[in-house]
Amino acid sequence: MIDTLTPSKSPQTSHSKSAAPLRVLGRSNSFNVRKVLWVCDEIGIPFTREDYGRGFMPTDTPEFLELNLTGQVPVIIDGDRVMRESNTIVRYLAAKHGATDLYPEHPAGRQAIEEWMDWVAYDVTHALRGAFLGGQLREAPYDHPWYIEQGQKELIHVMGLLNKHLSENGPYVMGDRFTIADIPVGLVVNRWFNLTHPGLKRPDYPAVAAYYELMTERPAFRKHGRNGLP
Fold first, then answer.
1. CATH architecture of the region 107-222
2. DSSP structure string for 151-189
3. How far apart are CA 60 and CA 114, in angstroms?
């Protein structure tokens, strides 16, 4: 099943170890692909990346849909295991590689991290459909003026909630340490500061701004987050 996909002629490669590298199918400018690339570099997981998605190899072919019936990136191939959904992949990789500093073994610790990851996946992503897909990329059907305005309002609201949390409990999402909760949240913050739609009146959220600078101290974030891409 895996070999039916044509690999990229020049995949990007990170690290060099004897184990077979992880295969990452997805364009490097994808928000969700970047989560996986970031966690790989944080942990030191070797990977190759192949360009699939918008502007690159299609994701609606029978071969790709056999790997991911939703036709979305990323698809991650780890030996004979094929995975989709970026947040679950990040959790899987942290657990598999024993990165307990990023993702503890205790269920309560994991739950506290996962609730922030899922908050990004639902509440924040819903807001970004209007604010980013509609307002910045002008993608239909999200580019309706009403939808853009509502997305911007909701994004301002959720970023305000994040600012309150970080000001009271930071500097990281989980307090005094970096965890995988910071991966989706960090990418959202990067997007927040890179939105250019004139209708977005970005409030001053000092704790979010400080968090952005804190994330920028991490080489993996500079490579896959604050790298000029929204």
1. Up-down Bundle (1.20)
2. HHHHHHHHHHHHHHHHHHH-SBTTBSS--TTHHHHHHHH
3. 30
Can you tell me whether residue 5 is helix, strand or coil?
coil
Pick from 139, 5, 141, 133: nearest CA to 68:
5
Query: What does the CA dihedral 193, 195, 198, 202 come to, rounded to 10 degrees?
Result: -30
CATH of domain 22-97: 3.40.30.10
Query: Dihedral, CA atoms, 180, 183, 185, 188, nearest 10 degrees?
Result: -170
Helical ranges in 70-128 per DSSP H: 86-96, 107-119, 125-128
Residue 5 is predicted with a pLDDT of: 63
Confidence at residue 17, expressed as pLDDT on a 0 to 100 scale: 43
Distance CA 34, CA 23 (A): 14
pLDDT over threshold 50, residue 160: yes
